[in-house]
Amino acid sequence: MLENMNVVITGHVDHGKSTVIGRLMADTGSLPDGKLEQVKANCARNSKPFEYAFLLDALKDEQSQGITIDSARVFFKSEKRHYIIIDAPGHIEFLKNMITGAARAEAAFLCIDAEEGVQENSRRHGYMLSMLGIKQMCVLVNKMDLVDYDRKVYKSIVRKYSRFLRNIKMHDVSFIPVSGMEGDNIASLSDNMSWWKGDTVLTLIDKFKKEKAPDDMAFRMPVQDVYKFTAMGDSRRIIAGTISTGTLKDGDELAFYPSGKMSRVSGIENFGGENPDTVSSGMATGFTMTEQIYAKRGNLVARAGEKQPQTGNVMRVNLFWLGREPFVKDKEYILKTGSERVRMRLFDTMKVIDASNLNSDGMKKMVERHDVADCVLTTQRPIAFDIVEDFPQTSRFVIVDGYEIAGGGIIREVIRDNQAEYRDKVMDRNLKWDIGNITRDKRSEAFGHRPSLVLVGGPEDFRKAQYAKSLEQRLFDEGNKVYYLGVRNVLAGLDADMTVKRHHLYPEDREEMIRRLAELANILMDVGIILVATVSELTYDERETFRMSVSPIEVQTIWVGSTDGSDVEADYTIEDAGTAEDHLETVVKLLKDSGVGK
C-alpha cells in the first residue's frame, strides 16, 4: 500500500505555482479524463489564452483576478506515494491562507520567477515555512523560458536565496530550474537545459522523507465538545474531538489539562456504526468515561504516564504578524490553539524581525505588519499546550483581532509565573483526588444547575457583605442550592491559627488564607452548589488562585465599591457600594447568562 504525504507549494504572486502543479498533473496523466480538453475548449470559447494554472483555479474570481485566493488541494500519485499538493496563495493579502495550507504539510516547494528574481514575499514565505517547522524544501526557479534558459540567471538566484535560507537556519534545500508553461524539468529532463543533470520535480518529490507517523507519538486530543444524552434512559456523556497525535484504546487512563483531572475510557463511540476498540491520529472520535469529571471545550487530553502538556498563562512564542494594525501591549486579543479560545495580551517583545530582509530590532515594542517577533504572551487564564520541539501539532496558534486572524505562530516555552507553584499543587491534587460514587454531573442533574463560584470583591466595606447575602437570598428564592461564605467566617475557624494585626493579615498569611479558601471552594464545587464568597481587596493573582483551584468551572467576579488601585477586571462593577442593591436584578441576569443557576 502506497504511503501518503502532504506537500505545499508557495511563492510570490505570479511566480507560477499553479502552472507548475497543472503541468505536473497533465504530464503525468493525473487529470480526470477530458479535463485538459475541457479547460482548453473553455479558453477558446472565451478568447482567452490557455494556461495550465486554469486546471486548478476552481473559483471564478480566481481566474478573473489571475491570483490564487484559497488553499486548493490537489491529489496526485507517483510510483512511490499518494500526494496531496496544497496550492498555497502567494499574494500578500492572502498570506494567512498560506499559513493554513503550509501548516498541514511535511515538505514544500517554493517558486521564484527567474525573470523577476527573489522578491520580499519569497523571503517571507521561506521564513514562515521555517517557522512552521517544515524542514524539507525545494526551490523551483520557474519561467526559465523567459530568460532563454540562461544558467547564469539560475545560479545567481540560487546564490542569493541560499544566503537568505542559511540565515534562517534552513539547510539542505534543493533547487531545480523549471518552466511550468513549457514543461521543462517538471516530469522529464529538459532539452532546453542540457546543462542541468539533476532531479525533475517528479523525481525530487519522491526523495522527500516521510515524517514520523503521528500515531507513534504520545496521545493528544483537543476537546471539541461534550455531548450529553438523556432520551430513553441514555445517560452517556461523550467527549468529542479530533485526535492530533497518538492512539486511543478502550480502557486508557486519561488526564484533562489544564486541570489535570483524570478518568478512564469506558468506551469509544462511533456514531455511524460499530464502536471500535482503538482510534488513531487524524480521526474524529468520541469516548465515554468511567468517572464523570467535568471537561469542556478547549481542554487538551493526554494519556496518563506519557509526556504531559505544558500548562500556564505566560509563554514565549515566535509569531508572524499579518494584521493591518500593529500588535501592541495595551490591547486585548483572542488566542486560539487547538479548540481553546482565550483572551490574551502582548506582555513583551524580545526581538522583532522584518522577515523580508531579516533586519532585527531588539528595542521595538510593537509588532507591525509582516514582522516576525520573538515575544511573550499572557492569557487571561491558564491553558494547556505543547512546545514546538515536543509536539508541533499542538504548539501552533493564531491570534484574532476583532473578527480577523491577525497573526500566527508557534509556542517555544512556558514561562513560570508567580502562580506556577500553586498550579503544580492543584494538578497533583487532581491526579490524586478520590472521586465518590456521586459525581458532579449527578449532583447537577439533581439540583437543576451546575456548581458555580461567584467572588464578591472590593474595598473593606460592610455593604459588600450585605450585597453578597442579598445575592445569596435572590438565588435561593429561585430554587438554587447556594451558600454565602464571608472571610470573617473563615478567619474565625479554618484560619484561626493565622496572625491578624489591625484587621489585616500579614502578607504570607493572606496568601495562605486565599489558598485555603480556594481549596474549600473546590470542595464546595464538588458538592454541586453555587458559592457566593466575599474577599476584601481581592487582587488579580488571588482571583487566579481561585480559578486554578476550581478549574474548569468558570469564576464570576462582582466588584462592589471603588476600583482605585485594583488590578482586577471584574465581570460586573458597582462603583457606589451604597447603590449595590439597585444592581441586584442586573447581576442575577448576568450570572444566568453566564450559566450560573436556574
Please render the helix and strand layout as text.
Elements: E1 3-11, H1 17-27, H2 35-45, H3 60-65, E2 72-77, E3 81-87, H4 95-102, E4 107-113, H5 120-131, E5 136-142, H6 151-167, E6 174-177, H7 201-205, E7 220-228, E8 237-242, E9 247-249, E10 253-257, E11 261-269, E12 278-280, E13 284-289, E14 300-303, E15 310-321, E16 333-337, E17 340-354, E18 360-361, E19 371-385, E20 396-401, E21 404-414, H8 420-432, H9 440-447, E22 452-458, H10 462-477, E23 482-485, H11 487-492, E24 500-501, E25 504-505, H12 507-527, E26 530-536, H13 540-550, E27 555-560, E28 572-574, H14 584-593
Parallel strand pairs: 1-3, 1-4, 4-5, 5-6, 22-26, 22-27, 23-26, 27-28
Antiparallel strand pairs: 2-3, 7-8, 7-14, 8-13, 9-12, 10-11, 10-14, 11-13, 15-19, 15-21, 16-17, 16-20, 17-18, 17-19, 20-21, 24-25
N- to C-terminal separation?
A: 56 Å
Indicate the percent of residues in helices: 25-40%
CATH topology of the largest domain: Rossmann fold
Radius of gyration: 29 Å
**Tell me about the biggest sheet?**
6 strands, mixed
Q: Structural class from helices and strands?
A: alpha/beta
Q: Helical segment tally?
A: 14
| Sequence stretches where pLDDT stays below 50 over 5 or more residues | 58-70, 91-95
Describe this structure in words.
The chain is α/β, with parallel strands linked by helices and 598 residues long. The chain folds into 4 domains: 3-205, P-loop containing nucleotide triphosphate hydrolases (Rossmann fold, 3-Layer(aba) Sandwich), CATH 3.40.50.300; 214-303, Elongation Factor Tu (Ef-tu), domain 3; 313-420, Elongation Factor Tu (Ef-tu), domain 3 (Beta Barrel), CATH 2.40.30; 436-593, P-loop containing nucleotide triphosphate hydrolases (Rossmann fold). The protein contains 14 helices and 28 strands. The strands form 6 sheets. Strands 2-3-1-4-5-6 form a 6-stranded mixed sheet, with helices on both faces. Strands 7-8-13-11-10-14 form a 6-stranded antiparallel barrel. The protein has a 6-stranded antiparallel β-barrel with strand order 15-19-17-16-20-21. Helix 12 runs parallel beside helix 13. It is elongated, with a radius of gyration of 29 Å. The model is unreliable at 58-70 and 91-95 (pLDDT under 50).
